[in-house]
Design goal:
CATH architecture of the largest domain: 3-Layer(aba) Sandwich
Strand order of the largest sheet: 3-2-1-4-5-6
Number of domains: 2
CATH superfamily of the largest domain: HAD superfamily/HAD-like
Order of helices and strands: EHHHHHHEHEHEHEE
Distance between the termini: 8 Å
Radius of gyration: 17 Å
Strand content: 5-15%
Shape: globular
Helix content: 40-55%
Number of strands: 6
Number of helices: 9
């Protein structure tokens, strides 16, 4: 069946999760990149472990906890940067190809949506700051069901919102584990491999692997 709508992961796919530290790189010093990597890794780890335990905390709370861990891991970074880093995370930069890709899909009459671990307020701030609101039909948060990706129930939020079977939805994510989750839910997953990461989850292969979002609307799916 042809793809009739596209659903995007937010953080790492449309929005650059390392933009917050990039804005304060000079103040953070030589461990800036390491801090940003640990911040992101712990943020995701907390979503997985809580979901496995049958518990839930809002993504913004986990984002702050992950930053606390990263700052403790890199004591060379001034902890007084924390408020500025969190403020920056609320309004992360969109990748340069995000707006054009969404605009091309909308021009073809294809519905678009975000499906994210992000809390509703976080997503609203990021979408507004990037000016992506007019290009999105839905902004869906796991907060509605209080379960994190890659549980199947999360991807079903998109199928219900779009009133389409999963096979007619293109799910776009830069996170290979997330693309695998979309594939497991029956969607046509597209992995945005911006950094040239090695392939994994071979049993849940994406329908396509792309380097960026450019030309997404021209793919034959």
């Amino acid at each position: 069946m042809p793809v009739r709508a596209f659903v995007f992961d937010a953080y790492g796919t449309l929005f650059d999760v390392h933009a917050a530290i990039s804005r304060h790189r000079a103040a953070a010093g030589p461990d800036a990149d390491g801090l940003s990597e640990i911040w992101r890794a712990k943020q995701l780890e907390y979503t997985w472990t809580l979901t496995l335990m049958g518990r839930y905390e809002e993504f913004w709370t986990l984002t702050e906890r992950a930053l606390d861990f990263a700052l403790a891991r890199f004591p060379s970074v001034n902890p007084k940067l924390k408020p500025k880093l969190l403020d920056s995370y609320r309004e992360l930069d969109a990748f340069p190809d995000a707006r054009s890709a969404l605009a091309e899909l909308k021009a073809k009459g294809l519905p678009t949506a975000i499906l994210s671990n992000g809390a509703p307020a976080m997503l609203a701030s990021a979408v507004s700051a990037a000016g992506l609101g007019p290009l999105l039909d839905h902004v869906l948060s796991v907060d509605a069901i209080r379960i994190y990706k890659p549980r199947r129930e999360v991807y079903e939020l998109a199928t219900r919102a779009l009133a389409l079977p999963p096979a007619e939805i293109g799910f776009v994510s830069s996170n290979r584990w997330d693309a695998a989750g979309g594939a497991a839910a029956g969607m046509k997953a597209l992995w945005v491999n911006r950094g040239g990461a090695p392939a994994e989850y071979a049993e849940l292969a994406p329908a396509a692997t792309i380097k960026n979002l450019s030309g997404l609307a021209a793919l034959s799916l």
